[in-house]
Design brief:
Layout (H helix, E strand, L loop, with lengths): L4 H6 L7 E4 L3 E5 L7 E7 L14 H18 L5 E4 L15 E5 L9
Antiparallel strand pairs: 1-2, 2-3, 3-5, 4-5
The structure holds guanosine-5'-monophosphate and zinc ion.
The site of guanosine-5'-monophosphate (5GP) has 14 residues, from β2.
């Protein structure tokens, strides 16, 4: 996808602080962290949001979740974490390339919204 910032990060055109990478996914530190550890996990293939998950691409989403425990561990999280995906305007999604926030490294707020 042209002009997609996370596609450019996935392609290495825009640098990022990488936590984990393989042929299908990339995990990198959020540029504006909202917790002591704040990592984003993305599919390298462009999917706009959770709203665009289908039977055809859901194996990639499963793959992301299979890898999240390892990503959290590599990022230094030892005492639990929160996984969030903002989808659409009311959820304040700002980057229209599917990503899962992994937040941890300290006790998080009890409320999620
Ligand atoms: P959203 O609001 O869409 O759920 O989350 C987008 C996230 O991407 C935000 O937390 C924002 O800080 C992060 N972000 C936006 N641009 C960049 C960037 O160029 N590099 C990195 N590492 N994170 C970014
Ligand atoms: Zn993209």
């Amino acid at each position: 996808m042209e002009n997609c910032i996370f596609c450019k990060i996935a392609a290495g055109i825009i640098p990022s602080s990488k936590v984990y990478e393989d042929e299908k996914i990339l995990a990198f530190r959020d540029i504006n962290p909202q917790a002591p550890v704040h990592v984003l996990v993305i599919p390298k293939k462009h999917i706009a949001s959770v709203d665009k998950i289908t039977a055809e691409n859901s194996s990639l989403i499963a793959y992301i979740f299979e890898n999240i425990p390892n990503v959290a561990k590599i990022a230094g999280i030892t005492n639990g974490y929160r996984v969030i995906s903002n989808c659409g305007p009311d959820a304040c999604q700002t980057v229209p390339h599917l990503h899962f926030h992994i937040l941890g490294g300290a006790p998080l707020a009890e409320k999620m919204a």
